[in-house]
Design a protein that fits this description.
about 260 residues; Leucine-rich repeat, LRR (right-handed beta-alpha superhelix); nine-stranded parallel beta sheet; 3 helices; about 20% strand
């Protein structure tokens, strides 16, 4: 098959097509799937770069230096297991970053250093179990974070510190059992939290605390709590900035409810 390299309007796509080797719908091709060599084939002026399905395994430090005009970067459906701190240095215009469907297990401190203008970050369907306290440090423009389908059981209370524009967290299908009372202290209200119906198992106090903090969450209506005496049904019926009215049949946490009522 004859290979043709073509760039359209600063939109660069490199992906593998089944049976055709490394070729994409625009005809841009690559014979080497290491990220540094792939990037050598891409113009530094590209505003959108899509590198999904390229068998990429790691993101080396400073690999994106020079791509200062890139606003969207898609690295989904690869085998990335390691992101070196400083890997995104140089992506000063980046707004959207997709790292979905990879093999990432740990987000180290300063993972996204150098890409301070990211507004939407997707880490869905990885194997993340540990997120260091300063993993998102510097992302002061971050608004939406997708952590769906990972293995997260706890979030450091200061993990979102100084992220004053962060307003939407998707974290369903994880293993959360507890949320720190200070977790969203620096975030604007209302704050949207997508917990989903599978995986996470927060108890009554955690759910009541979310409502008390003016945090909207899914699912909204009903929560089962496993107390020492069995399962109880709790529904938060009304919330405002000055009052919390809750219909509770969970006697295990009745004291907590009274503390939240004005």
């Amino acid at each position: 098959m004859r290979h043709i390299t073509r760039i359209l309007l600063g939109f660069c796509i490199i992906s593998k097509s089944t049976g055709c080797g490394p070729q994409n719908r625009n005809g841009l091709t690559t014979e080497d799937n290491t990220l540094p060599k792939i990037l050598k084939k891409i113009p530094k002026t590209s505003k959108k770069i899509e590198l999904y399905q390229n068998n990429i395994e790691e993101i080396p430090i400073n690999v994106f230096v020079g791509f200062s005009q890139c606003k969207k970067l898609d690295l989904g459906i690869n085998y990335i297991s390691e992101i070196q701190p400083g890997a995104f240095h140089g992506l000063k215009s980046l707004i959207v970053l997709y790292l979905w469907n990879n093999e990432i297990q740990v987000l180290a401190s300063n993972t996204f250093r150098g890409a301070k203008n990211i507004q939407s970050l997707s880490l869905q369907k990885n194997k993340i179990h540990t997120i260091h306290r300063h993993a998102f440090k510097g992302l002061k423009n971050l608004r939406k974070l997708n952590l769906i389908q990972n293995k997260i059981s706890v979030l450091n209370p200061q993990i979102f510190q100084d992220l004053h524009r962060f307003s939407h967290l998707q974290i369903k299908e994880n293993s959360l059992t507890i949320l720190s009372c200070s977790l969203f202290d620096d975030q604007p209200r209302p704050f949207k939290l997508d917990l989903g119906e599978k995986g996470n198992h927060l108890d009554c106090p955690a759910i009541l605390w979310l409502k008390y903090q003016n945090i909207s969450f899914e699912p909204k209506l009903l929560k089962l709590c496993q107390g020492q005496s069995g399962y109880y049904c709790m529904e938060t019926t009304t919330f405002s900035t000055t009052s919390l009215h809750t219909q509770v049949s969970c006697f295990e946490h009745s004291d907590f409810v009274s503390l939240c009522s004005f």
